[in-house]
Specification:
globular; 4 helices; alpha+beta; DNA-binding; homodimer; 57% helix; Arc Repressor Mutant, subunit A
Chain lengths: 107, 107
DNA sequence: CCTTGATACATAGCGTTGCTAGGTATATTA
DNA sequence: TAATATACCTAGCAACGCTATGTATCAAGG
């Protein structure tokens, strides 16, 4: 995945991934990799701070649990998070269509 | 258009817009607005420096002209620019598919 | 037993890059 | 003659994802 492509779309991806399947950070990274056909390889230094930010913003909530001796922080999307996600999905569609519109005209 | 959405996709858009129709900066901004259905409203402070950067990188070349008393710098895509554009188009498709893949699974 | 690799979390600080804000200049319209 | 549109430019800021680094547990291999 090209350098800065993610910029501005990270929240959308994280919210969508968690909506699909509530999970802890490490698993979210895995899920994104799988669902993207291996194209989304987000480093931990990107994902963890973003999850914290989304929780502080009230879009995600988390609880600690333990699995096979390792502690996990599992996230799920809040009501406000769902609303925000839907808005960002809408924004993505618009942006995507806008880019396609420019590309089409230049073939 | 949402805040940082453009990040990392500006070069693609500019190269594609100029490939579609060689033009001067101000017109490129207009063309992007039109081709995107009004969604891409790039400020001059974004576009002009980017055009300079792309020219320095050898992906665009420009020449000065004059139209109705006002000077214009008209850009066109170089050979290298075309190659780069095709690569970035490929990257865009991949990124776009990756995002869609994540969104689909979370409906 | 001890090292390596995978799992799982965290954060300080850096670098990139688009945007805001400001500036110059000409032509047209009110 | 003031405002608006056209047309260019740049310094400096701010946002934000990433690198690098650190901690800790468990499984597997030598």
């Amino acid at each position: 995945m090209r350098g800065e492509a993610l910029r501005g779309h990270l929240d959308l991806l994280l919210l969508a991934a968690v909506r699909a399947r509530p999970a802890h950070g490490y698993a979210i990274i895995e899920n994104l990799r799988l669902r993207s056909g291996g194209n989304l390889n987000l480093p931990e230094g990107t994902v963890y701070p973003a999850l914290h930010r989304l929780e502080r913003a009230g879009l995600l909530k988390s609880r600690w649990s333990e699995a096979s001796g390792r502690r996990r922080r599992t996230y799920e999307v809040t009501e406000r998070g769902l609303t925000e996600l839907r808005a960002q999905e809408q924004d993505w569609r618009e942006f995507s269509r806008a880019v396609e519109g420019v590309l089409e005209g230049s073939t």
